[in-house]
Design goal:
The structure is a single chain. With 499 residues, this protein is an alpha+beta fold. It has 15 helices and 16 strands. The strands form three sheets. Strands 8-7-6-11-10-9 form a six-stranded antiparallel beta sheet, sandwiched between helices. Strands 2-1-5-4-3 form a five-stranded antiparallel beta sheet.
């Protein structure tokens, strides 16, 4: 015979917690913290129900009266010392003191806000003396449900907000741990929390919250703002909370948590700043390249073409004066003018290589041919698995400009005798490697204008640039471009960075 376990009792299966369960009692009634406020003349302006029970004085018998006159014969000196100090400093204090007249220890938290001193306190043996064990068990269950409910949002700084009383209860020491306030399981007035909001955020936060509360719709409130720590510094925080509505759909309480997101916000700001700096760096590189290019063209026109044209003009003038040698001088003039035409064609080719007329490979070959005629360096060009018609015009121009830029860098700085240009394709990825046997350098992350131009061009195709170099061991530039980044798009981005 197989014995089966008895079925669970109907009441033994825990039910999921909901805001409806929590609507019965606020946490302030469960924990029974006494709470009162006084102004600078020590006149009592607020006295809650728990204070009535703990101190044996009803609110209507002490409101509007001087605190010290009512308790002059019994209150310990330590209480007066801390309360007076709290008025002098804009901070919170936490202390424990034995009150002989009451026969118990009190756990007390004080804080100053808007010329008002707020005091939250509890008796360490109050529950044992006045609350039955059955009631304590029920209170513990409600608290456990509350903690479980709130920690589904976050586990940082838990709180409850009573809209009618304009009081907040800071739970479990989160605000003490995160923001430095000596407040744990204690009431604070709403005005104290408001005074800690950054002035530039306060209006936005309060208006947003009021809008949700007044609308009667939406059970979740979320907000980011800056909150003052106890040391005066501001933290970036995020509040997430559940709003509790009564049967008339009126919001009267809210429970939630405050999370310190300072590191995340600062990191986000840092990345945005780095992005801005990179953008400025690229812009400066573009402007520098443009100015260099204009200077080179101006120098070429003035020092070279202008001189050749001047000589051609001189020969034409001589031809006009010496009829017997006219043909000789005119022939020399035509030769010089032809040189100017070829030089203009060469400059035009640099500025606009004409990839729409001839192929990318032919443009690179022509570039190498022109360079070999004037520079003592050997340059090899290798390519495989690439069909030029698969590359759109702007991608071909991007590749050509990168090759042109790096070859110019090699000629200016490398002092190399050999260089290699290698272009290959793997599916939708193009890899361009340009290497030389020159002097190399010790700055792998070199930020020269040429390298910045190359990186900005690679960014157009979600590409990346890697550099391998060491002093005396040459230089290798590796550029990876994604071919399909603009596939099926009618308009491709303009290449704005000049060579």
């Amino acid at each position: 015979m197989i014995l089966k376990p008895p079925p669970p009792k109907e009441n033994s299966i825990p039910k999921p917690f909901s805001t409806k369960d929590y609507r019965q009692k606020p946490i302030t009634e469960i924990i029974n913290n006494g709470f009162f406020t006084v102004d600078r003349k020590w006149t009592v302006t607020y006295w809650n129900k728990a204070a009535e029970r703990l101190l044996g004085v009803e609110a209507n018998n002490i409101l509007g009266k001087n605190l010290w006159e009512e308790f002059a014969a019994s209150i310990p000196l330590e209480f007066y010392t801390v309360y007076y100090k709290a008025f002098q400093e804009d901070t919170s204090f936490h202390f424990e003191e034995y009150w002989g007249e009451m026969g118990t220890w009190f756990d007390v938290i004080t804080y100053y806000c808007d010329n008002t001193l707020s005091v939250s306190f509890k008796s360490n043996n109050h529950h044992e003396r006045f609350v039955p064990q059955e009631q304590l068990a029920q209170q513990l269950k409600i608290l456990n449900d509350l903690y479980r409910f709130v920690t589904e949002i976050t586990n940082d700084c838990l709180w409850e907000w009573d809209f009618q009383a304009k009081e907040m209860f800071w739970i479990d020491g989160g605000h003490k741990r995160v923001f430095g306030y000596q407040i744990e399981n204690a009431l604070i007035p709403q005005s104290f929390w408001e005074s800690r909001l950054h002035p530039d955020d306060k209006l936005r936060v309060m208006m947003g919250l009021s809008k949700i509360i007044d609308s009667g719709f939406g059970s979740v409130w979320e907000e980011e703002y800056r909150f003052k720590r106890s040391n005066g510094e501001y933290a970036y925080v995020q509040d997430r909370a559940h709003i509790i509505f009564d049967d008339d759909n009126k919001a009267y309480r809210m429970i939630g948590a405050t999370q310190d997101v300072t590191e995340k916000i600062l990191l986000k700001n840092k990345l945005a700043e780095e992005s801005l700096l990179k953008s400025r760096e690229i812009t400066n590189a573009v402007l520098t390249a443009q100015e260099n290019e204009r200077a080179n063209i101006g120098k070429e026109l003035h020092d070279n073409l202008n001189q050749i044209l001047a000589v051609a003009k001189l020969y034409i003038q001589i031809a006009k004066m010496h009829e017997d040698k006219r043909e000789v001088y005119l022939e020399k003039s035509c030769l010089y003018i032809g040189n100017v035409i070829e030089e203009i064609r060469r400059i035009s080719k640099i500025l606009a290589p004409g990839v729409n007329i001839i192929s990318l490979f032919d443009n690179i070959k022509n570039l190498i041919h022109d360079l070999l005629a004037t520079h003592p360096i050997k340059i090899k060009f290798q390519y495989n698995d690439i069909i030029e018609t698969d590359l759109d015009e702007k991608l071909q121009l991007t590749i050509f400009r990168i090759v042109q830029e790096q070859i110019n860098n090699i000629l200016k700085y490398a002092n190399a005798t050999n260089a290699t240009i290698c272009l290959k394709r793997e599916e939708e990825q193009l890899t361009l490697i340009i290497s030389d046997d020159g002097e190399g350098c010790d700055d792998v992350e070199k930020k020269g204008v040429g390298i910045i131009n190359i990186k900005s061009r690679a960014d157009l195709y979600n590409g990346n640039v890697a550099i391998i170099t060491n002093p005396g061991q040459g230089f290798e530039l590796k550029v990876v471009l994604l071919m399909d980044i603009y596939k099926n798009k009618e308009q491709l981005p303009e290449v704005i960075v000049p060579s």
